[in-house]
Every structure is written in C-alpha cells, then in structure tokens.
Amino acid sequence: MRENFLKILLLLGAAFYLVGAIVHYFGLTLFPWFDGTLYSPYHDSIIAMASLAISGFFFVTYLDPNKNLGNLRVIIIAALISGILTIVMAYKTDFVSLYGSTLKNSQAWVEGVSLIIFSFLIFILKPNKNS
C-alpha cells in the first residue's frame, strides 16, 4: 500500500513537471494568476528543458522506487530546498509593486508549502534499505 501511494506521488510529480515543460515552452496559461508579461521565450524554453529532465527523473524513479533510493533522496532534498527557497523568495519580493497584485505572492506560498509537504510525504513513504 505504501509503495503504491509512493508511486502515485512520483507519477504525479512526473506529470506536474511534464505539464510545466509544455506550458513554459508554449507560454500557455494554466493558473488564474499567470502573468503574460513574465513570459520570455528564452528563459521559458530553458525552464521547459529542465522540467522535461525532472519529469523523466521522477518517472524513472516511479518505475522501481526500491532500486532508486538514491533518486528518492535527491527528490526529497531538492523538493524541500525548493519549497523553502520559494517561500523565502515570496517573503522577500514585493509583488504588489512589481505586478500590482498579491496573487503572485499567494501562488509562491502555495507552491512552496506544497513542495515541502510533497518532500515529507516522499520521505515518510520511501522504502527502507532492507525492503
């Protein structure tokens, strides 16, 4: 049961980053707080390529979490650090003066907290070395 839930989370992570790659590459809008003025074909293409690689990393780990404990550790640490840094960025950035709205701040907080929760869930569900 634990492994099934872990695999579902990893598959959702792979899907999230795959969708993120597509959205960034084509400059599509998925969220109500998307700001089209932030779209930059060069930077968003780089984000798309990185997201595609991360999606593949999640998918390979999903295929056999027991054989990919190292990958799981990287996912846990990266998600935790990314979540914390996203919250720090949200705290330090004055989104109102930049965009005239607090919606980007809310988005950053949701993303940061979600990444932290995701990292804890993966940590709790990861198999032991002896499994």
From TrEMBL:
Keywords (A to Z) from UniProt: Membrane, Transmembrane, Transmembrane helix
TM stretches of this protein: 9-34, 46-63, 70-91, 106-125
Name under which the protein is recorded: Uncharacterized protein
Taxonomic path: Bacteria, Candidatus Colwelliibacteriota
